[in-house]
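Why run this: before we spend reagent on co-expression, it is cheaper to look at a predicted model of the complex and decide which construct boundaries make sense. The entries below are exactly what would go into the expression plan.
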Amino acid sequence: MSNELIGARVLRKEDNRFITGKGRYTDDINLAGQTYACFVRSPHAHANIKGFHISAAENAPGVVAVLTGLQVLEDGLGGLPCGWMLHSKDGSEMKQPMHPIMAGEKVNYAGEPVAVVIADTYEQAKNAVEQVAVDYEVLQAVVDTSSAAEQADIYPDIPANTCYNWELGDAEATSQGLAEAAHITRIELINNRLIPNAMEPRAAIADYNTGTEELILYTTSQNPHLARLIFTAFVQIAPEHKLRVIAPDVGGGFGSKIFVYSEETTISWASKKIGRPIKWTAERSESFLTDAHGRDHHTMAELALDEEGNFLALNVKTTANMGAYLSTFASAVPTYLYGTLLAGQYRTPSIYVEVDAVFTNTAPVDAYRGAGRPEATYVLERLVEKAASELAIDPAELRRRNFIGKDQFPYQTPVALEYDIGDYEASLDKALEMSDYAGFASRKDASQRAGKLRGIGLSCYIEACGLAPSALAGSLGAGVGLWESGEIRVNPTGSVTVLTGSHSHGQGHETTFAQLVSAKLGIPIDDIDVVHGDTGKMDFGLGTYGSRSLAVGGSALSRAADKVIAKGTKIAAHLLQTDAENIEFDAGEFKVIDSNEGKTIQEIAFAAYVNHDFPIDELEPGLTEKAFYDPVNFTYPAGTHICEVEIDPDTGVTEITKFTAVDDFGTLINPMIVEGQVHGGLVQGIGQALLENCVYDTEGQLVTGSYMDYCMPRADDVPSFDVGMTCTPCTHNPVGAKGCGEAGAIGSPPAVMNAVLNALGQTDMDMPATSEKVWQAIQNAAASN
Amino acid sequence: MYDFNYHKPDTVADAVALFNAAEDAMYLAGGHTLIPAMKQRLRAPTDLIDLSAIQSLGEIQAKDGSLLIGSTVTHSQVAESEVVSAEAPVLAALASGIGDRQVRNRGTIGGSVANSDPAADYPAAVLGLGASIVTDRREIAADDFFQDMFETALADGELITAIRFPTTASAAYAKFPNPASRYATVGVLVAKTAGGVRVAITGAAASVFRATEMEQVLNDNFSVEALAEVRLASDDMNADIHAGAEYRAHLCGVMAARAVASI
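The model came back. Tokens follow.
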């Protein structure tokens, strides 16, 4: 595959419809006879339900039905499952509370649905919701992550509110390393809880046809096939052949739309009861309350070093908040997507990590852009920077001293992963140059003269993407294999329909995948359309998350294209009356070797469908091929981010004056799209570091329940980014790609915090570094001097 | 949002008459506070009286040494008005920093002043410049107008028709925005007026207030250095997840100094 399209900045094919208002999102769809759902939600974080009073609502204007959590119980619906089984150190299975689609007996977080009103209009449904009275017996809420295990049990069968006590690595060797250390750096960190904020809120339309007994669910999903599987196998809403899940245009997900939630499940169940379509679109305040949140770790870590600053051992102890229930992939996030990444880019010989996952009376917590890997990077890169400060070694030099060398791959880490390839010095060196690291001292002096504090901070991150090698994932508890499917239909006139199990909700797959297929088949990109997000159109797929689409879904398409070429070769051989071995394919043409004879792929496609004389036992008509790709390893994007800040000591306001990101994503198909992904990830990471924070009060009420209090980063909060690339192509997939969707959000938070702390001459502060927190740190330092 | 009766009168007298005839009416100007509150079902007026058809409320006039801004003039109109920039440039600057472009295109000066949000920008200008609030029945001095959080001297049904500002070139507004809402965490307006220096602070307490200690030192010595001697007590300051009382008290000093420095 050598083609000028690989690495070309092709403008996005999907943008025409998006920027002209022709996108078709779930809420844009309206069906005949459609009703509207509005949910009754618990105002309490923790309470027993003593009774429902629904008759007034049932008799309210326009109301079609009122259904409560009691009816969910009566119908015996299964709970929403968690797809990844974890085991504690002692071998016992993780504890998993029943997660009903609506609570009937007890509520466990504020905002949890307890009933739904379905009416002819949304206003009528919302009016009637106010007529539903629920009697609650309020219980003490468990909110705080670090003390959750010591508080009263939320669930009678889950002692100490603990889901699991997990471990990874060699405890003994790590203790030994710490005992032999010349220096130990210790840190205590909170990875702040975040609320995902996709531009499009979650929405769904469930359409049950009483005649055919088919259910069509339109929903804002990153992986519609998984939703169908869960609906069928676990919640038992409808048999799989009668259930079609369509995720049309979806406006952002960041992980929050991977999961199967109460609302779309409830309206699917209810549509069958009322025999009419039901639409539900979240109000933004519902999104804040109920979209699965991210992060929320409390961590103590210690890094042992020898006299030369070589890392000897790393010991990490984390408490991770799961919220009230286990969301779809929640259990894997603080374990296999976190503990396994704690080696970072370094040769640390011994690592031991313990993770206690706890339940609290808060919204469920699950994967959010980066999912575990930002938390790991944050621990490690804060710790390394602090060690450099304590040992008075330049932080770039300390990292360089401990890097896995580029000649040491494949590299087996002490925390289960085998890195296939990388060149960490290359990205560090390029980032140091692009950021003018050498010139920092003079810029700091200039700031000082202007009464400002300037700081610089590094972060050398690694992530495991391309989820996932199915056998490995299965051995670690994954409930499904994590391969991907791809299908290429070359139509009779030479245009191509590409079907993928990946789902695009802003990532630009319709362009990137078309570029890939165009490069493989030599068919113009304008003749290629990518179809995704409909279980009625493709057999199966695992969807989009974990920066997997190109590395796994793209690899499946690459294989499908190889099959198209193989089939086309046979057709060409038949048409040109030669053997297939005499045909070579290049740039869209099947040529007879050492001759001027040949056929274009378009000619072959036409012949494939209109032929009269194929030897049918050897050659079937048609030019459609399908492939499944199961990765043999994770991919390992890595890079260096360098942040430079200037702080106004009078107000504590931090301005990012320069942000440099150098990433190694392997082969790039479309650098423009990749840079866009980096920019978006950086803004989210900077948001976490400086602005965003999910706050519950002690009673479990969400304080940051709107944009008035939850601070989303805006364009004027971030600088113009300097993005650079290095490239070591992935060794084990046919595209050479590693994935780029999450890196920005993974690498940037510690770079920002390290820069802030460097400016302050301090080593401890939790995110977000708000102006008040920074100002207070300056006051405290002044008071103690 | 609950159902309501909608009215669109074209005179002030009709608007007031409609108000008095209704069970529980509210005036609607830009609607940037009222409509969200109604959508959240926190407000449920029986009648909405839309003021947008009353021409006289939408005018900006300079006369007799004062600047009269009609109550339905939007923030963007103030920000872009040549008359305002000539007669009281601080108002144009303040208005250009309210909310975002969409808010500025809808939100009005009368709505902001009548609402008396403790973190709104305009109250600092009204109080700091010593403006007066013209209503359908009287004219109220700013010092008498703002009473407490969301409480003003307006009687039930009393309609603001304009705000009368003294013309001034010697005033500045320095705002420390809440990073999430972009309301004022602290906003300080400092003005040299005929009656002496006035300092009005919004965002910091339950209602906009005059910082009399700051005014005293600035009357003696209008300088950043003089101001540095004053430290506002944090006792009555607002505290929330974005800024505690101590920090707000500190920011009052920083923002006041920045306003003084720019005059």
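The CA atoms of residues 652 and 776 of chain A lie 8 Å apart. The longest helix of chain A spans residues 549-575. Bring this page to Monday's planning discussion.
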